[in-house]
Structures are given as structure tokens and as C-alpha cells.
Amino acid sequence: MSQFELTKTRFREGVWEGLLTTKAKDAGSPEIAVTLRDQPVRGVTVSQTSQAGRWVVEIPVPLDALGDGVQTFLILDANAETVLDSFTLIAGEVLGDDIRAEVELLRAELDMLKRAFRRHCLETT
Predict the structure, then answer these.
(1) CATH number for position 17
(2) What does R_g of the chain's alpha carbons equal in angstroms?
(3) Strand, coil or helix: what is 106?
(4) Residues of the domain holding 52
(5) How many domains does the chain have?
(6) Helix, strand or coil for residue 89?
């Protein structure tokens, strides 16, 4: 069980940022590990804030993670070997199967059916 809690604050310009807080006063310094496809992500920074027990975590998204498919980053407490959080990038062809694409298709079909129904009502009256 981790003594830390991670909360996402923003994801901007290719950098995921979060606020790491301690649940226990004697937690010590955190050791954060981030993996993508079971490989470590480089360039992760953990910076102490002006308040005790709070750190800013910055995770740069590597260029090789950008492309077709689904990429899931796992953010781990390296000492407790537990997952603190994760985030996912989705790009390219895989989006065709995304639920949002399905909803857009259903909306378009519904609009087509509404037009056909209105035309039918006008023709039969």
C-alpha cells in the first residue's frame, strides 16, 4: 500500500502534470517510476513544493509514444510497487472504433431518418 496519493492537475504541451501528496507524515521522499509498454519513461521529474508533503510530478510524453494505437502510461510508487495513477493516449485508426465515433454515426443516421420521415409525412397528407 502506497503512502502517497497522485492527482492529475493538467496535460499540456506533451507533459502530464500531477500533484503528489503524502498520506503519512513519516512517508519520506517519493520514488516515482513511469512505464510505457513495460519500459521506463525517461525525463520524469518530481519537485518538492513550498508545502511539506507535496510534490509536483511532470511526465514528458516521448515522441515514440505518438502514433496509431492506444498507449497507456503507468505511474508507480517504486517503493511500494503500487500503481498511483495512469493516463492513456489514443490516436490514429483505432479511433474509428471509439464510442464517440459510433455516437456521431448514430446522430447522422438519426438526422437522415428524421428528414425521410418528414418528407414521408408531407407526401402522404
Answers:
(1) 2.60.40.1130
(2) 23
(3) helix
(4) 4-92
(5) 1
(6) strand
